[in-house]
């Protein structure tokens, strides 16, 4: 059933977003066209276009597209502070993501509880969910780059969970439907179809509603993100363009 695939996929909807870009945009009005990689002693921002496509901040120094940018003492101090505060923000962002993983897993567990699964299937689902949750927590803890959480990487994580959990739920629900049909219980068969349709159309908004519990945690990050945007103001890349590593809208 398609709904079983969606259960697993939506579990990843928040967890694999590093911190969901839409939430940062909506709550903090913060956006960035760059990916960020935190390396020992420096920050690396990169994007495909426009130039500069690679920005390196290291102990008050700045390189853009391989060119060292001449900075006055004030700008050096501001970039050093930018680097320190950005690094300090990383574990706080990760705490929100860890909480998001737990909320998503609990949502899947609660949704599956209404499927009348047999005891063995429920126990196996619980085991697999906890295994995947532990793996996600480990990946988040080890990650130092937003590249880990979008595109092919995120799809790969989602597909791993879908291929593990999807068949388990599909098999259990399929067996229930077959049994109901063989026993002439058309009402039960119709109920199973309704449950599948409800999962397909209703789970995502219910998950998004649950994730609203994270909103105060995201809001608590906004002043620090605003601070980063302020620290970069007036500093330009080697091509004369403003850095705009972090942009704050209205």
Summarize the structure.
This protein has 250 residues and is an alpha+beta fold.
Task: Chart the SSEs and their pairings.
Blueprint: H1 2-15, H2 21-28, E1 30-31, E2 35-39, E3 42-46, E4 54-58, E5 61-64, E6 67-68, H3 73-113, H4 119-142, H5 152-182, H6 186-210, H7 215-231, E7 247-248
Antiparallel strand pairs: 1-7, 2-3, 3-4, 4-5, 5-6
Helix pairs in contact: 1-3, 1-5, 1-6, 2-7, 3-4, 3-6, 3-7, 4-5, 5-6
Organism: Dyella acidisoli
Protein name: DUF2884 family protein
Signal peptide: 1-21
Q: How would you characterize the overall build of this protein?
A:
- With 250 residues, the chain is α+β, with helices and mostly antiparallel strands.
- It has helices spanning 2-15, 21-28, 73-113, 119-142, 152-182, 186-210, 215-231, and strands spanning 30-31, 35-39, 42-46, 54-58, 61-64, 67-68, 247-248.
- It has seven helices and seven strands.
- Mean pLDDT is 80; it is low at 1-19.
Strand order of the largest sheet: 2-3-4-5-6
Helix-strand makeup class: alpha+beta
The tally of beta strands, per DSSP, is 7
Helix content: 55-70%
InterPro entries: DUF2884
Keywords: Signal
Organism: Dyella acidisoli
Pfam families: DUF2884 (PF11101)
Task: List descriptors.
250 residues; alpha+beta; 7 strands; disordered N terminus
